[in-house]
Amino acid sequence: MDVGPSHAALAALLPPEWDAQQVYDDHEALMLHGQRCCYFRNPACGRCVLLDLCATGQALMSARAAPDEARTASASDRPVQPL
User: Fold this and answer.
1) In terms of residue numbers, what domain contains 56?
2) 20 to 30 Å CA-CA from 59: which of 25, 51, 69, 80?
3) CA dist., res. 48 & res. 36, Å (int)
């Protein structure tokens, strides 16, 4: 999405009563969140306060859980070998 349309789309999501300072403060908070939690290569979705709003984070968490569930299921399906 180009800058013009994306700006309009984001502005439509903000409360209409916000002034320029509140919009800027929100922008700064999201930038800080990106620096401290939402990393490009390995986001820390497990500790993200916005996870319930983030489709990407939810997909990443599901993908990360799938191998763990498969490993647990396969380990519990194996018979116990006597000593």
Assistant:
1) 20-69
2) 25
3) 10
Q: Is residue 6 part of a domain?
A: no
**Residue 74 belongs to some domain of the structure:** no
Cβ atoms 51, 57 nearer than 8 A: yes
Q: What pTM did the predictor assign?
A: 0.59
Q: Which amino acid is it at 68?
A: D
Does any domain span residue 12?
no
**Number of domains comprising the chain:** 1
3-state secondary structure (DSSP) of residue 43: coil
Side-chain-side CA neighbours of residue 42 (13 Å): 0
